Amino acid sequence: MQTDLRKKLIDAFNLSNGEFLSGQKLAEIAGCSRTAVWKHMEDLRHDGFVIEAVRKKGYRIVKVPGKVSGDEISLGLKTERLGRTIHYEESVESTQKIAHRLAAEGAPEGTLIVADEQTMGRGRLGRKWHSPKYTGIWTSLILRPDLPPAKAPQLTLIAAVAAVQAIEDVTELTSQIKWPNDILIGKKKVTGILTELQAESDRINAIIIGIGMNVNQRVTDFPPELFETATSLSIEKGEDTSRASLIQALLLRFENLYDIYLSQGFLPIKLLWESYAISIGQRIIARTLTGDYKGIAQGITDDGVLKLEEEDGNIRQIYSADILLEEE
Question: What is the pTM of this model?
């Protein structure tokens, strides 16, 4: 996790607009000695940052590494709350597992857990999520909204809208949402979302939103069983994308939508979600624990539940299912 001193230095560079900051100025901002500033500049260099140092001018950061460390995410982050506390690990079993522990220990809202690799990443229903090193975004976000537990699924839909918008912001690629938690480009999955709760019967203690995004994988990075169903932003765009920039855009988009949701309710989110949904108006199969249901997807309710119009005109509400377009 970033130290407070390191965070103050990164924040100072964030506000400098690329201008030089003197060692004395940085020491005053961070509340430390100029020697400590120098040491932290050397540590940043060791971590892959390119730092220009000019006598009587000071320091400025001219290039950042290709990692997703807390330092790189913080440098350029424009949010007020989300991602202001970052826990980074190079390799973990699962960011969700760490997030659950940190949430139980009282981590503040907006705490971000991010890793360069997951060895036991997972999606819905305990499915494995392929998370190779240095290729994608494997992250979990801790939220603490004052909401009843029944509202938690709406946060998945907010995250889906934020992911679509962030992908477009950074790559200009168009993606779509397949209810409830998949982001597709064409008909191949590029992002998955997993929302989990720490809650009592009448209140949420923490919502943990896990997001896995395939960013810079090549086709050969996917196991054979995923060739036909998964893709990456790199495959679709033909060039690599900064993972840190994507995380920054994702957090900013999520924070804006989250604030709208908390102040105005779910309706604005619902309208946005439906505008990005791939299945609205399409014939689908909803595979649930109680059976398969066919019909036309008619949107979602004010609670985020999928509405399926069956052959007899009956509107069935789908709370949890795997969704297939009928031609699949």
Answer: 0.82
